[in-house]
């Protein structure tokens, strides 16, 4: 890919997937003849706009992930993640910095979303040509309630303003690194995703939405596995 910046995908597979009830990280559960990890890896690896993929794996499973990654020549490395999702992102940023990729465009994707489409990846890469931070999301079809600790409804936000976050999330690597530098200096720092880190700690950086797809689902439990298997079988 001819570009002033390289495009690197970071595949986060650091969780153990306890809610899936599989007795192993859900990344190694099979869907349609391949592991969840391999489906997600292949989607990123095979996209013509991605120059390389860095896999961040759960502790104790790095060697198993290396076996899965062997047929994919554009896998840059398989490294060990941390206890929290944010720890795995930080590990990836440290790896990128040590390999002269501080200026890369980075797509951070959860391995638990094995059905990400080429269109979503392309739209994220295109958005990063003019943006510094983007998040994939789909409009909420449900009314969302906000309740207090006693279960009382305190707000009903307008549905037109509500989106359900997905991945990948895309960044200029230097922007994401700056956000984490500030965040890690905050003793109260808690993060669920990388866009929220940029949004909170770099308020001058706008995070723009890239339209996602319902098919880009997150596999969390046995029902999700069954739905994902059916989607792959039907090709829908």
UniProtKB/TrEMBL annotation:
CDD domains documented for this protein: CDP-ME_synthetase
Protein name: 2-C-methyl-D-erythritol 4-phosphate cytidylyltransferase
Site features described as Positions MEP for the nucleophilic attack, chain residue numbers: 159, 218
Pathway: Isoprenoid biosynthesis; isopentenyl diphosphate biosynthesis via DXP pathway; isopentenyl diphosphate from 1-deoxy-D-xylulose 5-phosphate: step 2/6
Function: Catalyzes the formation of 4-diphosphocytidyl-2-C-methyl-D-erythritol from CTP and 2-C-methyl-D-erythritol 4-phosphate (MEP).
Keyword Metal-binding: no
E.C. number: 2.7.7.60
Top-level class of the enzyme under EC nomenclature: transferase
């Amino acid at each position: 890919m001819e570009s002033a910046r390289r495009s690197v995908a970071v595949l986060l597979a650091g969780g153990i997937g306890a809610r899936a009830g599989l007795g192993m990280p859900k990344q190694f559960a099979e869907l349609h003849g391949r592991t969840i990890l391999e489906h997600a890896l292949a989607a990123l690896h095979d996209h013509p706009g991605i120059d390389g993929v860095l896999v961040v794996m759960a502790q104790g499973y790095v060697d198993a992930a290396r076996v899965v990654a062997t047929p994919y020549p554009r896998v840059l490395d398989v490294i060990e993640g941390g206890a929290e999702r944010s720890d795995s992102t930080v590990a990836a940023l440290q790896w990128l910095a040590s390999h002269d990729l501080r200026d890369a465009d980075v797509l951070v994707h959860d391995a638990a979303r094995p059905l990400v489409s080429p269109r979503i990846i392309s739209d994220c890469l295109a958005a990063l040509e003019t943006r510094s931070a983007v998040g994939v999301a789909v409009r909420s079809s449900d009314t969302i309630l906000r309740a207090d600790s006693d279960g009382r409804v305190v707000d009903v936000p307008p549905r037109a303003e509500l989106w359900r976050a997905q991945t990948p999330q895309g960044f200029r690597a230097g922007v994401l690194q700056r956000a984490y530098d500030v965040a890690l200096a905050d003793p109260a720092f808690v993060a669920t995703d990388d866009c929220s880190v940029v949004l909170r700690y770099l308020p001058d950086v706008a995070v723009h939405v890239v339209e996602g797809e319902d098919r880009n689902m997150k596999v969390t439990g046995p029902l999700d596995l069954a739905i994902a298997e059916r989607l792959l079988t039907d090709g829908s």
